[in-house]
Amino acid sequence: MTRRSPVDVIYVAAAAHDARYTRICVASLRAYYPDAPIKLLAGGVLEAGLADELATYWDVAVADLPRVDYGWGFVKLEPLFGPPGERFLVLDSDTVITGPVLDCWRPDDGPFLVDDETQPEGRAKELYYDWDVLRSELPETVTPRFLFNSGQWFGTAGVLTRRDFEPVLAWTTPPTLRHAKLFMPGDQGVLNFVLNQKAALEGLRVERKVIMRWPRNDMSDLSAADVASGRAPARVVHWAGLKQANQRLMPGSDLLRHFEAAYYRRLPQGRPRRSFHALRSTSASLAGRLRAVSRRLRPTPG
User: Fold this and answer.
1) pLDDT, the chain, mean
2) Which residue from 26, 115, 202, 243 has the fewest beta carbons nearer than 10 Å?
3) Which residues fall within 8 angstroms of residue 138, CB to CB, at 6 or more apart?
4) Number of domains forming the structure of the chain
């Protein structure tokens, strides 16, 4: 059934190494929202031909942003500074939706909606930021009321400014963490920090609902069969930290195969394209791992 999108735009963070996942993510979005505006947040160079392919067959555009180096994930902050009042969803490429997840954000909700996550304190400080130590540098730092993975969150442009991030982030190219030892690298920690500070000190409304499912947790109600039959709950499934060169070894891989098949059914010569892109993705992933191992084994000068 075609649904009207309750957001103005869906942003998908994309880079060359995530092209296979970007395609899968887009196919899942179009399964529930055929007409919703979808734009890629190009945090770096995209795979050759990907933008044209998505524009031609899936009505997906590339967000009009400066083509600069955004570093690890900081491009996902850019929608905050778009047209004031624009309501959006930001997704990482390694996600799929399993139902009309946009409907969880009601018109009378606050300007932000995040996943209602629970983490032990020690793990939370590793994944986000160490608020206790940060307080010695920034005395107004509050203990966070909520924490959320920044691979899926709803926001409204024009509510936050770049100045709100300046206590913890320098807007260099790419952006630089001011207290790098206390924050997880990338956008996740600073976005959690700013929203918590605004919520505690200025009363900013940040809604919390269970919207994310991590595939290493229970996936018994989110199989490809559940999705195909319409029985699955509406969630954002996010393979955060779980990607492998061989997707079949990943938990919840049947969902990836389900939406990947849907993606290539729309393309001419879909089967050979799918095989070619899968081989290219696997080769790139293995090459990246070999480079990482080589760097770790390289002797230190002197």
Assistant:
1) 92
2) 202
3) 167, 168
4) 1
Residue 280 pLDDT: 82
Contact (Cβ atoms closer than 8 angstroms) between residue 32 and residue 3: yes
Cα–Cα distance for residue pair 29/50, rounded to 1 Å: 17
Report if residue 3 sits inside a domain: no
pLDDT tens digits, one per residue of 78-99: 999 999 999 999 999 999 999 9
d(CA 16, CA 288): 12
User: CATH no. for residue 197?
Assistant: 3.90.550.10
Residue in 172, 208, 214 with CA at minimum distance from that of residue 192: 208
Residue 202 lies in a domain: yes
- Looking at the predicted structure, is the pLDDT value of residue 143 above 50? yes
Closest CA relative to residue 153, chosen from 67, 227, 88: 88
On the CB side of 260, CA atoms within 13 Å amount to: 22
Q: Give the percent of the chain with pLDDT over 70.
A: 92
Q: How far is CA 286 from CA 17, 127, 149, 185, 292, in A?
A: 11, 26, 26, 23, 10
CA–CA gap between residue 258 and residue 164 (Å, rounded): 41
- Verdict on whether the full-model pTM lies above 0.85: yes
Whether the upstream peptide bond of residue 174 has omega within 30° of 0, thus cis, is yes
Question: Which residue range is the domain that position 202 belongs to?
Answer: 9-297
* Tens-place pLDDT, residues 196-205: 999 999 999 9
pLDDT confidence bin for 2, thresholds 50/70/90: low
